[in-house]
# Entry
Amino acid sequence: MLVIISNRYSMKPAKLVAHPPGPAKPVIVKGLPAPARPVGNAVPAKPAIAKDPPVPARPVGNVVPAKPVGNAVPAKPAIVKGPPLPARPVGNVVPAKPVIVKVPTSVPVKPTAVKLPINGVNKLDVAKEAAAKAAEQAAKAAADKAAKEAAAVRAAKAAVEEAAKAAAARRAAITWPKTTMTDPEVVKHFVRCAYGCWCRLKTMGAIEGPRCNRRLVVTELAKVLDGIHRDCGVPKVELEIYTGRSTSCGFFVSGYNTWKMKINEGRLSTDSIAKSEVYSLIETLYHEGRHSEQVWLVLVQSLFEKREWSSLQNKYEVPNAFLSRRTLSEPNDVLQKALNEAVKRREEPVIGDREIYYKYRALKEKIKKWDEETTKNGKDTECIYQNSDKSSHWFHKYQTIPTEYDAFLIEELVREEFKKIGEFRDTAIQAAPGPCRHCHGKNNQHIFSGLPLSMVR
# Structure
């Protein structure tokens, strides 16, 4: 093995020293270059003294440290005693005083525990962010769902309202007649108006005293009935006042170019008209007014069933309308009004119209019976009318004629409303008829059976 020994202060070339073979010796650097000498009056810095110099490693085995070659002085090992002292000023230079920086006192900040990320990622923050994001998405989804549900509810509600409006419009269009004299509100209106008319006549002195006027009383109360007919669509009925037997109240006449109501003023006193007489007259007017409405409904319905669609005229027509009614021969103005009503009517209600359908079907059954009363059973009906006052049996038959039965039932409605008026309460109660003189109240189809009004069918 060859070892090269060099000396930085010797100009001689390095010698090659041969060593006998053996274990390799470690290279030992015995010294470092000497520090430079101070220039001028500069005092060299004192070497730093290390308090605990390191112990040199012992040679392993037979390793012998190399001897210095020639005049080379082995360099002393550098002993590091501590940090170097500051250099002294050269000449008259006064060293600058160190600047003292005053640090303002501050309240010590409490250390915050910082959770360091694991492998560069803070799993807690990531989990929080993921949870917050998931919560935000869930809230947004819930809000969207709630908005959609609210929109769906509003749409459904709007659809129901539109359907209800459409159904109401359709029912209003197909409802015929719009109102009749049997409707509770119509009855109430008639009773209020009749009572008001009686009060005015009483104030005028037409009910009692020297200015008592039977014809005026009948005329004014008939005007109240005209208003009811106008509301129900019934043509105005001509009024004829006559004086007859006290057993006759009045009657309605139609056919043979006649549309007239005859009222007997003979049932009223000449000098002082009693309250009971006025009440009987009011019932008679409503009873006979219902008969005129019955004939009107039969006329319109019969023309309605005969109408046909005209593609040429693009409307409904009733062929030979005037010829088809020759057997009854109502006045032309009444027949023309009925024809106009029949062709402009909408189609009949269907079962889906519920209450309107059932109400219309019941009315249609009544109209059919009323029509058969004068067409199919006309002779029998006329016979009953001619003999109604001869016996209780015939009077019973008269009261159970379909048109009369319906009109007497109307009287019951008027009576119930007058019972609500204090001045007429006792009069209305006393005017209630007793059991039928023929069936003695055993026939539950009879208006005079004594059964409550709700039980009469």
Summary: The longest strand covers residues 259-264.
